[in-house]
Amino acid sequence: MSASKVYLLLYNSVSALLWLRILLTIVASYSDPEIYTIVETWTRWTQTLAVIEILHATTGITRAPVFTTFTQIFARSVQVWAINYGFSDVTASSPAYTSMLAAWSTADVVRYLYFAVLLAGVPVPQALKWLRYSLFLVLYPIGIGSEWWLMYRATTVTTNPFIAGLFTFFLGLYAPGSVMMYRYMVKQRRKTLSN
């Protein structure tokens, strides 16, 4: 196995475990009013780790499209740093925070596990393949809708007109960006599950 495959196997395995920890914490603490305090730091740094996926795509060590990868990673990075962390007074008490993390962590546990199994060179179980290319049908609308709502709420409480304008601009990008991401995944689903 090449050094890049070993690295990617390690990266995907660690990422799957980090998101699994977040998912299990959410499941165990779902109704806890302190859920934000319990998982926010873990989520912020786990998502920040994913920024290197843009480099993976750019350098060609993965076949992921650079623009699609950048779009998803950038949107989530803005969400964890500028919204969830920057406006915790809005985020911490919102059920949208929990639903967003439930969608993100479920999707990412499956995605990273799928890639880890693929890189390990063992046959990918059909159930895992189906989950990888089907869960997004439900999880994308939940995650994207939750992200949008939290950003909208941050826009309503900020006193900085520049920040409010920037967030409003990003809110406007959600519609075309979401359609682009959804179409990309539908195309990937059709191609992968038809084989």
Automatic annotation (TrEMBL):
This is Very-long-chain (3R)-3-hydroxyacyl-CoA dehydratase. It comes from the Eukaryota. InterPro entries: Tyr_Pase-like_PTPLA. It comes from Aspergillus pseudoustus. It is an enzyme of class 4 (lyase). Its EC number is 4.2.1.134. It is a multi-pass membrane protein. Its main location: endoplasmic reticulum.
